[in-house]
Specification:
The complex is a heterodimer of chains A (159) and B (326). Chain A is of the alpha+beta class. Chain A has 2 domains: 77 residues, Ubiquitin-like (UB roll) (Roll); 67 residues, [2Fe-2S]-binding domain (DNA polymerase, domain 1), CATH 1.10.150. Chain A is 29% helix and 14% strand. Chain A is built from 5 helices and 5 strands. In chain A, the strands form 2 sheets. In chain A, strands 2-1-5 form a 3-stranded mixed beta sheet, covered by helices on one side. The N and C termini of chain A lie far apart (54 Å). Chain B folds into 3 domains: 57 residues, 2-Layer Sandwich (Uridine Diphospho-n-acetylenolpyruvylglucosamine Reductase, domain 2), CATH 3.30.43; 115 residues, Uridine Diphospho-n-acetylenolpyruvylglucosamine Reductase, domain 3; 105 residues, CO dehydrogenase flavoprotein, C-terminal domain (Enolase-like, domain 1). Chain B is 29% helix and 20% strand. In chain B, the strands form 3 sheets. A 5-stranded antiparallel beta sheet of chain B has the order 4-5-8-6-7. A 4-stranded antiparallel beta sheet of chain B has the order 9-10-11-12, with helices on both faces. A 3-stranded parallel beta sheet of chain B has the order 1-3-2, with no helix packed on it. In chain B, α9 packs antiparallel against α10 and α10 packs antiparallel against α11. Chain B has 326 residues and is an alpha+beta fold. Classes of the chains: A alpha+beta (159), B alpha+beta (326). Chains A and B meet through β4 of A and α2 and α5 of B.
């Protein structure tokens, strides 16, 4: 069987794209390979580590590495590149910097998009909510403490 | 690594999906959240000709009251939405089990129907394709060899669903649909003792809904795993019944992830219904669970650990059932 490519539309960080996509490609493949948005990383590629996390049109965190690209035809996503607006970092990004929640950087986009998923869906997340939202990201050599501090204090940065 | 070659189709309606399931040639895999299917395609365990997406079918969404006083849950409901659905709150074991699945990231994708249909898992097959190639084919490939348990004549891969035991303890029914109509059956009858064809779903059928009777009595759910974030369970247990002091009627105790089908315990139930929820009877019932489990030499932990885990979980679940505030 030969791969049958299909035309799909995908809105990424507010920009609409028309793309020719193979069923063999995941959303992650399209984001990195076709759109050149390499902020989103590939780790385990099996939905375990969380470094490929992006946000769906409801702002919820989900895993681009185990999402067939064609499944997202007509939908919108936000990647790490879409958080900053007009040269100003998103609240969660500034909080991560100020609270020292960034280290080597490989998992950081996935960690931040997971944290952004919490910010997008809960106004005043509890400790349990933060643990729940972040447990799906395994990598983070800073440890958990700084990341959680940043999320707890993100409200300060919202304007 | 890209996914294996296949055709991706996404019919707009349930009727179109069922028609395609009946008419298409070649192997079809259904996909909803994709968290199990894509994972298995990555590992080349699934290499379907066609991937049929039912993810956005409106007919599989929503929760409705039934005339019997219970609820009907669309099989396509996401696990995150299940947690927040007010009608589901009347079934605490289901809420707890739903929340126990994997991570928030996965629950934002995965569906209830998908969780009930999760492929079985085994220490042999759930490896890389190269690893499997080195060891040779097994019952999952139509060869009469089992690498997990040498003497096994049917596939002993384990059920992976956290939610199925909770729903079975809640006396759930499921509805399967094909182009000719629907059939409804108790969820417990959905599963088989063969890890290859581990459900009775026919190739042209789709799981469309889950029915729960009116809430009644108490239910509990407990999960044991390595890390809360993402790991498959070592074991889960769900129990339910009408509890009055130490007396209990209509007791269900269901162990999950230790056997090919979610296991409804028989003798422990008989012991407790006869003797009541005393500490002594609970210990006897917990010890009796082992005899119904069969071989445990597969996945994650040694048989001795699993045996001891099953005993602990039965004891813990029964005590919680007794001591929980009604």
């Amino acid at each position: 069987m030969t791969t049958k490519r299909q035309v799909m539309t995908l809105t990424v960080n507010g920009d609409s794209h028309e793309l020719l996509v193979s069923p063999r490609q995941t959303l992650l493949d399209v984001i990195r390979g076709q759109l050149g948005l390499t902020g989103t990383k590939e780790g385990c590629a099996t939905g375990t580590c969380g470094v490929c996390t992006i946000n769906n049109d409801n702002g919820e965190a989900f895993l681009s590495c185990i999402t067939p690209a064609l499944e997202w035809d007509g939908k919108a996503i936000t990647t790490i590149e879409g958080l900053e607006a007009g040269g100003k970092l998103a609240a969660i990004q500034q909080a991560f910097i100020d609270y020292g929640a960034v280290q080597c950087g490989f998992c950081t986009p996935g960690v931040i998009m997971s944290a952004q998923g919490i910010v997008n869906t809960l106004d005043d997340p509890s400790e349990d909510d933060i643990n729940d939202g972040m447990a799906g990201v395994l990598c983070r050599c800073t440890g958990h403490i700084k990341v959680k501090e940043a999320i707890r204090n993100v409200a300060k940065y919202k304007s | 690594m890209h996914l294996p070659d296949h055709e991706f189709v996404k019919p707009a309606t349930l009727a179109d999906s069922l028609a395609l399931l009946r008419s298409a040639s070649g192997e079809i895999k259904l996909i909803a959240g994709g968290t199990d299917v894509v994972y298995n395609m990555r590992g080349r365990l699934f290499q379907p000709d066609i991937l049929l997406s039912v993810r956005d079918l409106a007919e599989l969404q929503g929760v409705a009251d039934t005339t019997a006083g219970g609820i009907r849950i669309g099989a396509g409901i996401r696990l995150t939405d299940l947690e927040h659905e007010p009608r589901v709150a009347a079934y605490p074991a289901l809420v707890t089990a739903g929340r126990a699945v994997a991570s928030r990231h996965v629950r934002n994708m995965a569906t209830l129907g998908g969780n009930l249909c999760l492929d079985t898992r085994c220490w042999y097959t759930n490896q890389t394709a190269e690893w499997r190639q080195a060891k040779g084919p097994c019952l999952k490939n139509g060869v009469a060899v089992c690498h997990a348990i040498k003497s096994a004549s049917v596939c002993v891969a384990l059920n992976a669903s956290d939610i199925a035991p909770a729903l079975i303890a809640l006396n759930a029914d499921i509805t399967l649909a094909n182009v000719d109509g629907e059939r409804r059956l108790p969820l417990t009858d959905f599963y088989t003792d063969d890890g290859v064809t581990h459900t009775i779903r026919d190739a042209d059928e789709l799981l469309v809904a889950i029915d729960l009777p009116a809430p009644s009595g108490r239910t509990v759910f407990i999960k044991e795993t390595a890390r809360k974030g993402n790991d498959f369970s070592y074991a889960v247990i769900a129990a339910g019944g009408e509890v009055a002091g130490q007396r209990v009627t209509g007791l269900r105790i269901v162990l999950g992830c230790l056997t090919t089908r979610p296991l409804s315990l028989q003798e422990p139930v008989r012991i407790i219904e006869t003797r009541g929820l005393t500490d002594e009877a609970i210990d006897v019932a917990a010890a009796a669970a082992r005899d119904e489990l069969g071989p445990l030499t597969n996945l994650y932990t040694p048989a001795a650990y699993k045996s001891s885990l099953a005993r602990s979980l039965v004891r813990q679940a029964l005590r919680e059932l007794r001591d929980a505030t009604p």
